Amino acid sequence: QVQLRESGPGLVKPSETLSLSCSVSGDFVDTYSWTWIRQPAGKGLEWIGYSYINGDTKYNPSLRGRVAMSVDTSQNQLSLKVTSVTAADTAIYYCAKVLSTGWTRWAAFDVWGQGTMVTVSS
Amino acid sequence: QSALTQPASVSGSLGQSITISCSGTDSDVGANDYLSWYQHHPGKAPKLIIYDVRNRPSGISNRFSGSKSGNTASLTISGLQAEDEADYYCTSYTTYSTVLFGGGTKLTVL
């Protein structure tokens, strides 16, 4: 059974880069497509992007090119970078696995990490 | 791309049924059947309860059911239980290969 665990600095200064990792256990990271999602305090869930099984990526256009996702097969983990952060990037960040049963179910995220809180503040 | 539209809150009594709607457009909810629902208890990770409009993952109670008509999807929870009190989010894959979440619905079990 796949398990995910996010990690990273809990505090990032404005204008700097937020960097998070998501450790994958129970299977190989290059077996599935993955996604990152965040939730600002008191608000709803926001999709950040996909990291596809073929290595390509797709991002939420609202993040205006500030996002980069990647996969490290040697470490069996995912990574997320958000550049030029502001207070609006303060949120709980989740990594999740995209469900694949026969074919990929693009809106179905069946395994989630526990989430990691990131605060943007000087 | 705007978030999908959900009611901010719904409530129901123990044992009753409730339905949560999720409205979108021809570019998302109406474009395909990649429509999911998540249950989110504060402080925990969201849980997938419905995918592809009406399919339940293994281990999810059959009290949860989903449907879709045109640009509106619905989640019905029957036989409400105290543990169903949570936030519920719909999610849709769009024609732009992106994902939209609904704004979330807070379910209160009376």
Content of β-strand of chain B: 35-45%
What is the 3D form of chain A?
globular
Order of helices and strands of chain B: EEEEEEEEE
* Total beta-strand segments of chain B: 9
Tally of contiguous helical segments of chain A: 0
**Would you tell me the overall average pLDDT of chain A?**
96
Oligomer: heterodimer
Strand content of the residues of chain A, in percent?
over 45%
**Count the strands of chain A?**
11
How many helices of chain B in DSSP terms?
A: 0
Contiguous runs where pLDDT drops below 50 for at least 5 residues of chain B: none
Helical percent range of chain A?
under 10%
Give the proportion of residues in helices of chain B: under 10%
Euclidean distance between termini CA atoms of chain B = 35 Å
**Secondary structure category of chain A:** mainly beta
What is the structural class of chain B?
mainly beta
Please give the largest β-sheet of chain A.
7 strands, mixed
